[in-house]
Design brief:
Length: 90
């Protein structure tokens, strides 16, 4: 199986230099639970309904943890890095 850059399609020659662009998106928490008038049971019930209604199990899991992994050539490594860094505005 030949390795190729997943961004531009360039074939990585055997023994050639390539990079793995890996991004993890992990659900964060500040440890504070939002105040609510609703009882715990009601909240759980509502959450379960939403999960089963709109989201597949995979979609739900992706909201908690998602890893994106790309094989990159040297040129696209810079593109990948710059695109991610470009997201930082504040
Ligand atoms: Zn490339």
């Amino acid at each position: 199986m030949r390795l190729h850059c997943q961004t531009c399609g360039t074939v990585i020659p055997p023994g050639g230099v390539f990079y793995i662009g890996r991004t993890e998106i992990i659900s964060g928490s500040d440890g504070i639970l939002p105040d609510s008038e609703e009882s715990g049971d009601k909240i759980i019930d509502k959450a379960l309904k939403e999960i089963t209604k709109v989201k597949s199990e995979q979609e739900f899991m992706d909201e908690v943890y998602q890893e994106i992994k790309l094989v990159l050539c040297g040129q696209c490594r810079l593109v990948f890095r710059d695109k991610i860094l470009d997201l930082v505005k504040y």
